[in-house]
Amino acid sequence: MRYIACLLTLLLLAVPWAQAQNELEIVIDTGVENILPIAVIPFGWNGAAGEQPIDLHRTIANNLSRSGRFATMSDNEMPQRPVEFAHVNFSDWQLVRMENIVIGNLKHTEAGDYEIEFRLLDVYKANQLTGFRIKAKRRQLRRIAHRISDIIFEKLTGVRGAFDTRIAYVTVKQDEAGRDRHSLQIADADGFNPQVLLESDQALMSPAWSPDGKRLAYVSFEGDSSSVFVQNIRTGRREEVAAHEGINSAPAFSPDGGRLAMTLSKDGNPEIYVLHLAGNSLQRITRNRAIDTEPNWSPDGSRLVFTSDRGGTPQIYEVGLQGGAPRRLTFDGSYFARPRHSPDGAGITMVYGSNGAYRIAYLDTGSGSLSVLTNNRLDESPSFSPNGSMIIYATNGRYGSELAAVSADGKVRQRLALQDGEVREPAWGPFPAD
Amino acid sequence: MIKKFLLLFFLGLFVTACTTTPEQGEGPDVVDKTGSADMADDGAGDAEAGSEAQAFGAEGDQATALQELENPESLLSVRIIYFDYDSSTVLSQFEEIIQAHAGFLQANPGVVTSLEGHADERGSREYNLALGERRALAVKQQLVVLGASPEQVRTVSYGEERPADPGHDEQAWSLNRRVEFVY
C-alpha cells in the first residue's frame, strides 16, 4: 500500500507539457535466443469497444519485447483471453509452454477516473507472483503501464526495470523557409509523450541529466558561440553557467548533483574543468596542449573519464578528481571518444572508430576486453539506461540522424525513428525518485 | 488540492512558454558594421564633435578595405581553408591565401575577422567541436606569424553543427572540414 501511495504521489508530480507533434516509432531489428516467453493478455475494459484511452497490454508487451529479455505472444495465438484470475485455465497455457501470463482490467469509474488492476501469474505453479490495483487520471495511464512493465521485468529477471524513465534528445527540422530549427526534447523511454523544453534557430548539443532527473544541462549556440546552460525541467527556468572565451561544452553532472564537469578552452585549448554549482567556482582537472573533452563521472564520483588526443589520436583516459596523471584506458584502435560509465561502474561505452566506421563499443575496464555492439558506419552518442541493460545511441538513418538502442550484450538492437527530421544525442535519464 | 495542482500546472506551462524560446541569435557585429556601405556618412553625422575627425577617418579606411575584400580577382575573395581528416595542419596549398589575408589585416589594423572552425560529422560531436576550434586557432596562429595582430582575429568553433554539405560521404566531409574567414 505504501508503494501505491508513493506511486500516486509521483504521478501527481509528473507535469505534462505541450505535446510535441511527432512521436518516436519503434522498430525491432534483431531477435535473440534465451528469452523468457510471456503472454500479456488484452486487459478487460468496461467502456465502449474501441474507446480505451490506452492500449495497456500493447504498451506493456512492447516494453518487454524491446528489452530483449522477453518473447511476447501475439494476441491471436493466445488459447484464451481471461480478465479475472478465476477464469484462467492454467493447463491451456501449459500446453502452449507459456511460463508467465499477465492479466488485467481497466475500468472507467463513475467519477471519471480510471481503475487499473494487473496480475502477473506463474502458469506452472498456477499462482499469482505479484499484482496491484490503482486509481489514476487519464494522463497517468501510460506511466502506469511503464510501472507495471518495471514490476514484471524485476520480478522475472531480478533486475530493476527502466521503462518508467525518460530520455532527452535534440531534434533538427527545417521550417518553411528552409532554416534549421533545433529543439531540446524529453520523452518517455519508449519514445512516446515527447515534450519540448527549448527551441532555437541555433545548434543545441550534449543534453545531460542531473542525477535527480529535475534538471538538464546542455550546450547552446544561441549567443553565436557555445555556452553551457542548466534548465529546470518542470519550470523551464534556465541559467547560463559557462560562457567564457572559446569552447564551453560537454557538461556532465556529478553523481551528487552539486558539480558540473565540462570542457572549457578559455585558457587556450580544451581542458576539463569542474564547476561547483553552489559557489560558482571552477576547478581545473587537465593540463595538456592536446584536446581534452567529454568528461563523464564514475558512479562513485571519485574519477572522470574523458576523450583526449594527447597520444596522437582520440583515446579514452581516466583521471582522479584530486589530480594526478591521467591513465590511458584504450589502446586497440585509432579512434575512441565520448566515454560513458555503465551504472555499475564495471565498464565504459564509447564511440569506436575503425576502418572508416564509427560504432558503439563497450570496454570492460576490469579485463580490458572490448566488445563492438553496433554495425553501422556513423553511430555516436551512446548512453546507458539507468539499470545498465540497454544503451541508447544515435545512428544514421534514412532521414539523417535517428535514435537506436542496443542491449548491453549487443544481442538486441532496435530503432526509434521520428516521422520527419533528425533526432540526435540521446541521453537516458535516471530512475524516478522513490 | 486539484485546483492548486492545475494552477501550478498552468503556471508551469506559462513559465515554460515564456522562457524556453531563446531570442533570435544576432549575427556577429563585425559583419554588420563593415557591410554597410553608407556608414561613413551616417557615422560622421552622428559622431560627437570631439571624435568626429577620427571617426570619419576610420570609416573611410573601412570602406576602402571593403572594396578590396569584394574584389573577385583578389586572393582575399577565397575565404575557406580545408583540412584533412582529424587534422588541424594547414595544408601548403592554402598558405598563399592565408598570406593574403594576413597582409590585408596588417594593412588595415581596424579590420577584425572571425575564423569559424568546422569538422565533418564522423566521430563524436564534442570532440569535433574541439577539433573545429583547433583548426581555427591553427589559421589564427599563421595569420599572426604573418603580421596580423591577435586582436584582429577572433575564433569560434561550430564543430559538426553547421555542415557546408549535408551529405554523408567523403565528398561532403571534405567540404565540411574547414575554417571560414568572416569579415
Question: Keyphrases for this structure?
Answer:
heterodimer; A: 434 residues; mainly beta; Rossmann fold; Neuraminidase; 2 domains; 6-stranded mixed sheet; 5-stranded antiparallel sheet; 4 helices; 11% helix; globular; B: 183 residues; alpha+beta; 60s Ribosomal Protein L30, Chain: A; 4-stranded mixed sheet; 51% helix; elongated; disordered N terminus
TL;DR?
The complex is a heterodimer of chains A (434) and B (183). Helix content of chain A is 11%, strand content 45%.
Write the layout of secondary structure elements.
The complex is a heterodimer of chains A (434) and B (183).
Chain A: H1 2-13, E1 25-28, E2 36-40, E3 44-45, H2 56-66, E4 70-72, H3 90-95, E5 100-108, E6 114-122, E7 127-136, H4 141-157, E8 166-174, E9 180-188, E10 195-200, E11 204-209, E12 215-220, E13 227-232, E14 238-242, E15 248-253, E16 259-264, E17 271-276, E18 281-284, E19 292-297, E20 303-308, E21 315-320, E22 323-328, E23 335-341, E24 347-354, E25 357-364, E26 370-372, E27 380-384, E28 390-397, E29 400-407, E30 413-417, E31 422-428
Parallel strand pairs in A: 2-4, 2-5, 3-5
Antiparallel strand pairs in A: 1-30, 5-6, 6-7, 8-9, 8-31, 9-10, 11-12, 12-13, 13-14, 15-16, 16-17, 17-18, 19-20, 20-21, 21-22, 23-24, 24-25, 25-26, 27-28, 28-29, 29-30
Helix pairs in contact in A: 2-4
Chain B: H1 2-19, H2 29-35, H3 39-46, H4 52-70, E1 80-82, H5 95-107, E2 113-118, H6 125-145, E3 153-159, H7 170-176, E4 178-182
Parallel strand pairs in B: 2-3
Antiparallel strand pairs in B: 1-4, 2-4
Helix pairs in contact in B: 3-4, 5-6
Structural overview:
The complex is a heterodimer of chains A (434) and B (183). In chain A, strands 2, 3, 4, 5, 6 and 7 form a 6-stranded mixed beta sheet that branches. A 5-stranded antiparallel beta sheet of chain A has the order 1-30-29-28-27, with no helix packed on it. In chain A, helix 2 (56-66) packs across helix 4. The radius of gyration of chain A is 23 Å and the shape is globular. Chain A folds into 2 domains: 31-157, 3-Layer(aba) Sandwich (Rossmann fold), CATH 3.40.50; 166-428, Neuraminidase, CATH 2.120.10.30. In chain A, strand 6 and strand 7 (127-136) form a beta hairpin. The two termini of chain A are 14 Å apart. In chain A, 47% of the residues are buried. By secondary structure, chain A is mainly beta. Chain A contains 4 helices and 31 strands. With 183 residues, chain B is an alpha+beta fold. Chain B has a domain at 79-183: 2-Layer Sandwich (60s Ribosomal Protein L30, Chain: A), CATH 3.30.1330.60. In chain B, helix 6 links the parallel strand 2 and strand 3 (153-159). Classes of the chains: A mainly beta (434), B alpha+beta (183). The interface between A and B is large, with 56 and 42 residues.
